[in-house]
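Dear colleague,

Following up on Tuesday's group meeting, I ran the structure prediction for the two-component complex that the binding team flagged. I've pasted the input sequences exactly as they went in, so you can double-check that nothing got truncated or mislabelled along the way. The structure tokens for the whole assembly follow below. Feel free to forward this to whoever is handling the docking comparison.

Inputs:
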Amino acid sequence: MIPKSHPRYESLLLRDKMVKAAKKGYLADSAMIAHGRGEAFDYLIGERTTYPAKRAMYVAVAALLLSNNPVISVNGNATALAVEEIIELANSVGAKIEINLFYRTDDRVKIITQIYKDLGYDKILGTLDDDIEYLTDIKNNRASASKTGIYSADTVLIPLEDGDRAEILKKSGKNIITIDLNPLSRTSKMSDVSIMDNIVRAIPFMTKIAEDLKTQDKQVLMEIVNDFDNEENLKESLEQIKLKE
Amino acid sequence: MIPKSHPRYESLLLRDKMVKAAKKGYLADSAMIAHGRGEAFDYLIGERTTYPAKRAMYVAVAALLLSNNPVISVNGNATALAVEEIIELANSVGAKIEINLFYRTDDRVKIITQIYKDLGYDKILGTLDDDIEYLTDIKNNRASASKTGIYSADTVLIPLEDGDRAEILKKSGKNIITIDLNPLSRTSKMSDVSIMDNIVRAIPFMTKIAEDLKTQDKQVLMEIVNDFDNEENLKESLEQIKLKE
């Protein structure tokens, strides 16, 4: 048990979730390393949701609400850290959830499928019995996608996604939204909307934004999306990293 | 196999070493997370050995050479990443090597002991049959130390060390040298000499420095040590972190 008084309580709690997920067997071998990288960047932004991140979240939610077939892509890390929050966001914006693993194994897919089912979410895509298509001519796991999910999606939210896979998704012509604590990562640079934040803070915040934006006209949502410049916003995100004590 | 042409080849190689060590069972649960944090900071300094790091290494080696009983403290991560380099440095500066695990279990100690023995290094301290003393009144693993090693050491090199343990070592009056990629970490701030570098680059570099400094008079080594200001050097280290692309 981590005492609530510990100065690193929130961070240690997430670390604990990752350790438990690793023991359950549904994380990739290097998943913990990716989490550690995120921890470092989160530390450098003061473990708070910055203004550029909030701006990107408004744009992301507006884009999801405007889409015909929005999909949230989940992997082991996203599931370990924020499975309930992801389901809530999906329900709120009317998005599908699809399991997409860069290092896909049947075992990992099975365990993750069960985690969503145990929470009452039965519509999960990308499962072992789902119809899988490929986004490129090369039929590998980096390009696999559920036929009714990411394969036919117009907007895909990819929290904590590998750069190679982000690139394939982008090249397939989809609107890509990422949540990634590293504003210099390939995924952040390649995405249409890059939210530099910890997913445990970002996803519930996006659900709140959705409750607000759902009451707005389509025209308003389109303005939010069109006014946004991701490159500029990433620059502002980078400036949030404070190196002085 | 990672192709040598991969832009992240060196980083992926280290990641691979960590994954293998985890499978061998001698890493702490959150060891991979710590490695990921290091990766992020290494990325931010351009994965190169900076000038302030080199300066700190000269001071560290001089201090080790001047000490009566210098000890290099090793844990799972240090062993996974640089076991051979650590043995070379220890032989070069005449330091002992001691296994010191923040999350100490007999199994982990046994596996790590064997790794050093398999490389022909039989003098390793901190093993299961070593005499263990405590640096504080509270007899826990954070304060444990080999009687002929850290317990009686004047200078201790603690690469990749936890902040709690660094604090206990410091309070016990020893001269502390750390190798830590995060210049803001408690360990970096608490140490007498903080080398902000990746241990796989730092340790072989320190061995080279040792070959040079061993030919110098004691007076020269003392001047190197006395001229050094760790706080100032940490500030300069921090300035090496480049956030602009």
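The longest strand of chain B covers residues 70-74.

Cheers,
M.
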